[in-house]
Amino acid sequence: MSAYQDLSLQERMLLKFEAEEFLYYEADLLDSRRFDEWLNLLADDIHYWMPLRRTTQAKEVEKEFTVPGGMALFDDDKTILTMRIQRLAIGRAWAEDPPSRTRCLISNVRIDSIDEDELTVRSNFKLYRTRLNSEEDSWIGRREDTLRRSEGGFLLCRRHLFLEQTVILSQNLSSLF
User: Fold this and answer.
1) pLDDT in tens, 105-156
2) Which helix (H) or strand (E) holds 74?
3) CATH architecture type of domain 4-163
4) Among 170, 27, 33, 169, which residue's Cα sits nearest to residue 101?
5) 3-28, pLDDT tens digit by residue?
6) Which helix (H) or strand (E) holds 105?
7) Are 131 and 141 contacting, i.e. CB atoms less than 8 angstroms apart?
8) Mean pLDDT rounded to a whole number for the chain
9) H helices present in the chain, as ranges
């Protein structure tokens, strides 16, 4: 039994509310293109990872996603995420000029476990993106985040994203999830 189940109902409700508020705020920063503020929510040791998903036979469903260290759509640390944000700021990200308009919906937020000052939080997401006059993309999946308590609230120190899609039909994958 994790420490989360040992908490009272009121303590669990408050902790879940705090986690949800953080995730909703973070999504709003990305949708509002307030990328520098978003970077401030990331721990220095962040691991931002999205594995590839493959169609497998039922008997090999555990091999559906690639593993850390293997092929991935994203396998970023804070340095790489910072460079991505800097490219957006100076107009060097051709896939984002003109910029995309996004809306990220977060649902089914649940706390998996507590380990000292870190929470493991699972949620579902839908990221909708439109760009130019006719580009329209949607990605749906689940997230496994680790939030670390800091002086000002939480920092995101791990985000693992698992898409439902096995084939990415969009022209690029430049959005942040």
Assistant:
1) 999 999 999 998 999 999 999 999 999 998 999 999 999 999 999 998 999 9
2) strand 72-76
3) Roll (3.10)
4) 33
5) 888 999 999 999 999 999 999 999 99
6) strand 101-115
7) no
8) 94
9) 3-6, 9-31, 35-39, 78-89
Amino acid 103: pLDDT: 98
Q: What span, in angstroms and rounded, lies between the C-alpha atoms of 141 and 163?
A: 4
Q: Give yes or no for residue 1 having a pLDDT over 80.
A: no
Lookup: tokens for 4: 């989360």
CA distance 52 to 27: 23
Q: In b/e form, how buried is each residue of 144-170, taking b as 16+ CB within 10 angstroms?
A: ebbbbeeeeebbbbbbbbbbeeeeeeb
Give me 14's structure tokens.
């408050």
Compute φ and ψ for 173, nearest 5 degrees: -130, 65
* The pair of three-digit structure tokens given for residue 169, joined into one six-digit string: 């039909």
Mean pLDDT over 31-45 rounds to 97
Contacts of 63 (CB under 8 A, 6+ apart): 54, 56
**Residues 6 or more apart from 110 whose CB is under 8 A from it?**
16, 121, 122, 123
